[in-house]
Amino acid sequence: MEQYQRYVTDNKFMAEKENQILQSSKTNQTDASAIPKNNFTQSSRTTEFALDRSKSMSFDWSEFERVFATEFNSKGGFERLVSFLSEVSKIIAKYLKSERDINSKVLDFHHPHQLREMMDHCLYVDENPRDLEQLLSDCKETLKYCVKTAHPRFWNQLSTGIDIIGLVAEWVTAAANTNMFTYEMAPVFTLMEETVLERMRGLIGWRDGDGIFAPGGAISNLYAMLAARHVINPNIKQAGMMGSKKLVVYTSEQSHFSIKKAAVILGIGLENVISIPADNRGKMVVSELEKAVKQTLQQGNIPLMVNATCGTTVLGAFDPVSEIAPLCEQHDIWLHIDGAWGGSVLFTEKYRHLLKDIHRADSMTWNPHKMMGVQLQCSAIFLKKKGILSAVNQLGADYLFQKDKLYDTNYDTGDKAIQCGRHNDIFKLWLMWRSKIFVGNPEEERRFQASTRTGQC
Ligand SMILES: Cc1ncc(COP(=O)(O)O)c(C=O)c1O
Fold first, then answer.
1. Which pLDDT value is given to residue 54?
2. Which of the following CATH numbers is that of domain 171-456: 1.20.272.10, 3.40.50.12280, 3.40.640.10, 3.40.190.10?
3. Which of ligand 1's atoms lies nearest the C-alpha of 255?
4. HSE of 97 in the Cβ direction (CA atoms, 13 Å)?
5. Average of pLDDT values for 110-130?
6. Are the C-beta atoms of 36 and 18 separated by less than 8 Å?
7. Which residue has a Cα nearest atom 5 of ligand 1?
8. Percent of the chain beyond pLDDT 70?
């Protein structure tokens, strides 16, 4: 309701501004200050905006409908839809082919003001609907200036390449356009999520446990810290951090900044994130971690979580989990594995040893959108124990998560999440997994390593 009101208020504001603009353009005194600041950055646009609006007062919305909806249902509409989609496929196929041309540029770089000028003919959004031909041209134009992530000279250890099965899966996902918050909204994808999460937990070495797909590794790390905090003090959910003792997080100086960010978001505070030195290969020095934990205890504060990064962002180092785990077990500290990047080595016989003992951890972040080459975004947080995600996040909104539905509402995974609506990130991973990765098959592993460049770590 509040949002709706804000929407109405915003629209009123826009309408008032537009009226002012119309009045001033009628009297030939366009007042730039009358235009909401965030609309356009260039003053030339400002003038165009004012003039366009004055022309389009009797705008016909049925134009819009004709192009995007009803036409496909009318006589011959299906054929037109098929030909439109095949035109898009051709554009994509040509792009994918040209992307792999080693003689082409990885990026046709231009400064923002230049690019704005070069795309001037199509960047503008206004109330005039463009026809499908124009939109096809817009698609081509857009791809022209993108970074070619499947180019042989595009080298990024975190995410790279275009997997065709993943691409097709993204199309199907968009066609289904379902929201992952409840089983009734996404029955098939909910089951796929359950199946794949279970399979991935199996690779971590957990028979049971919990997990959820999240929008990226940073958010997955936030989930882990949130869960750790809930286990140590469930009251915080109700009472907030005010009465809490200082909670301390340990992470190597080479770890990803999202650990610090999570501490900021959760009210733990940056000064309570202890940066543990790393050795010259980028691995956490466990004796330094030990010292830091001792100091926390001496100060009467609470060691909350150790983050062991498996696959650090810059050096690709793997913190020694086998040495860190006993320390965490001794002091009852939550052990989180940030395997956002390196988690995927679980798929290879050759490198799996880098993640030895990760089953001793309490949680793990793992991004299939990194080393596995699944299209962005695809990231999951795993927990060894079931029930914590629900306990900390569940609020039971009764318009969405009713308990008297005609199916097992444990399949309504949405209330375990910190978001409401959730994108379907599972289908592309599921389809890709079915198409290629087979642990233990040397030929598959070789291809996986070649395609993901695991061979370099
Ligand atoms: C080790 C590590 N953790 C977490 C992240 C954050 O992942 P995302 O960009 O998906 O939020 C990254 C990204 O670079 C990373 O390298």
1. 39
2. 3.40.640.10
3. 1
4. 6
5. 89
6. no
7. 217
8. 79
Structural class in CATH, domain 62-154: alpha beta
- List, for residues 254-282, the tens digit of each pLDDT value: 999 999 999 999 999 999 999 999 999 99
| Closest-lying ligand 1 atom to the alpha carbon of residue 342 | 1
In terms of pTM, does the model score above 0.85? no
Domain boundaries of the chain, sorted by first residue: 2-55, 62-154, 171-456
Contacts of 254 (CB under 8 A, 6+ apart): 278, 282, 283, 284, 309, 312, 313, 314, 315, 317
Protein residue with its CA nearest to atom 16 in ligand 1: 313
Q: Identify the residues whose C-beta falls under 6 Å from ligand 1.
A: 158, 216-218, 221, 256, 258, 309, 311-313, 338, 340-341, 367, 379
Q: Confidence class of residue 59 from pLDDT cuts 50, 70 and 90?
A: very low
CA of 289 relative to ligand 1 center, distance in Å: 22
How much is the pLDDT for 70?
A: 53
Instruction: Give the tokens for residue 453.
Output: 């460049």
Q: How many residues does the chain have?
A: 457
- Tens-digit pLDDT profile for residues 63-113: 444 545 556 677 677 777 788 888 999 999 999 999 999 999 999 999 999
The H or E element that residue 204 is part of is helix 187-204
Pocket test for ligand 1, best of 370, 372, 377 (most atoms within 8 A of CB): 370
How many Å lie between the centroid of ligand 1 and the Cα of residue 379?
A: 9
| CA of residue 359 to ligand 1 center, whole Å | 21
Kindly give, in sequence order, each residue whose CB lies less than 8 Å from that of residue 177, ignoring residues fewer than 6 positions away.
Answer: none
